[in-house]
Amino acid sequence: LIKKGKVMDKQIDNSEFNDSSEIQESLNLPVENETGPIPDPEDLTLSNGINDPEELTEEEPKPPLKEIVKDLLIKRGYEGSIVRLLIAWLSIAFYEIVTVKESFTTFEFFTAIRFPVYILYIIGIFIILSIINKPKLDKCLLILVTLAYGCYAIAQDDSFYFTIGGCVIIGIVCTYCVGTWIKVRLKKAPTIIIIAVLGLLFTLFTGILTSLNHLRHWSACYDFGIFSQMYEYMKETGLPLTTCERDELLSHFSVHFSPIYYILLPIYMIFPTPVTLLMCQAAVIASGLIPLYLLCRKYKLSNPAIILFSLCYVLLPSMSNGCFFFFHENKFLAPLVLWLAYALEKNKWIPVIVCALLVMSVKEDAPVYVAVLGLYFLLSKRSPKKGIVIMILAIIYFFTATYCINKFGSGTLNDRFNNFFYDGSDSFLTIIKAVIMNPMYTLYECFNEDRIKFFLQMLVPLGFIPFMIKKPSKLVLLIPFIMFNLMGDYSYLHDIGYQYTYGSAAFLIYLMVLNYAELKPGFRNKVLAIAAASSIFMFMGNTYHRTEDFKRYKDDKQTTEKIDNALELIPKDSSIAASTFLVPALYDCREVYELDTTKHRDSVEYIVIDLRYSSDSYSADNYINDPNYEIVANEPGCVVIFKNLTINS
Hints:
Elements: E1 2-3, E2 6-7, H1 20-26, H2 65-75, H3 78-99, H4 107-111, H5 115-132, H6 135-156, H7 160-177, H8 188-215, H9 221-237, E3 241-242, E4 250-251, H10 265-270, H11 274-286, H12 289-298, H13 303-315, H14 317-321, H15 333-346, H16 349-360, H17 367-379, H18 384-408, H19 428-437, H20 439-446, H21 449-459, H22 479-487, H23 502-518, H24 521-542, H25 548-555, H26 557-567, E5 575-578, E6 591-594, E7 606-610, H27 621-624, E8 629-635, E9 639-644
Parallel strand pairs: 5-6, 5-7
Antiparallel strand pairs: 1-2, 3-4, 7-9, 8-9
């Protein structure tokens, strides 16, 4: 054999051959001819077609299983092997939880799994991933399979502490997997499209589900019957009048001063139905994505980061869940507070004043949000003049609005802070004095089991980024969250299912943007990924179960039709006392009262009783045997309507 011009294994004596051609013939090599010189031995191919002489040796035996395992585990790294093993394990566990009919929380689930096959599948996936051997792909797969497995499990059992446990696990996975190696580049146009899709999905999800609840007559007088009737009066008279809010005809502004309602009136006049209000409400909340996008751009965040911020916004449990207590003015706070923050960031006088007035028009206590933002921009010295101006404007507006309600209306609802009125007064100044004199008492009132649960529901989906504060002036921005949600003894203040979270949620989102912009790149990538992943789990644990309303609407279709047909028999200009869940359906009747609480039960023309549930305050039996009442409609198990024969129309 010849390699690199040297004789190997067999010594060849050139003297045995007459010339060089004989040597070439003996080795079966091409002889120089007219077409060109003899090729270089480096490029020669032996007669049997093998380039490497080593291939002529006997075929090496296959490595034993021990060597294969050693190559997969040791030579390719223990760390990578553990990651691939986790992916394989979680993938098969996910497959089993999807395919097995029994719940994963029962013993029957374990007996339905064939354990040897289960292990073989894990080994098979592990081997495939080890052959591919792509560490970056492995990290991405680990995040995705953990998210998928966790979401499906939480959808089956959405208990709060189980959901928190899932957030802890996905947080650990994101901490390990996410780093500066992830580089996703998106241009402006695709980013805007993705954010718009998120906003549209939020609007459809929240708007449609709340509308279905209303259409199947499970929206109550408090607080949807009030606003349904109020908008009908606004359409007809221009005034926000109701009869069912305080059991008499009066302006809603005597209870809460909320001129912001007129913004939706033009849309309602085109589509005069309560469903319009619910869809518009969801769209108003989703519109907060616009100022959030502008704030993120102001702080030069990357487009992928902006998308994750938007995801955290729409999946924050309080954003959607609060709508299922139906319609309230507080929902306007989420976008308007962010718009005011952006206007202050841009340092333009006209937008600042306009946005401040819009925020204050939401409710008589909304000036507090304006004052807090003004105080922040004053203390941070970023825009002290504008901060002072809107603070003064907020103080004047607050005391004027509360004075008018106390003087001409039904008075402000200060009983929500009874735990701070140590001197028996109901003054806002008393609360401030109590906090200053006894801060430890404030801490005591802010944290108990219910409030800690609420605290986690609000902060876990944001990755606790709002609390990663480096500058003391930002602590001011936590005032709305502490004051409006943690301090008061009114249980609904710290419940994501009600309307009292939208202003403070906007402040937490704004703080999240400010703090994120100051974090180191590698660390902030991790915490934002943790926030986005946790928001998905928290959505599944706190909001996803609302999708069952699709099935409920379908199941209740016949009952709903019977109730609708019965209610159509009532004249629109008559006086009515109806069960609480039927009041919103009578929104276009001029005089409607809630049957449970009204004093007009004996003086109205029609009594409408919901037979789907019983009440301690009234019963259909009281009217069936009364000769002064006749039955107008009677659908057993659904609704019964009585007419008072002693009253002339």
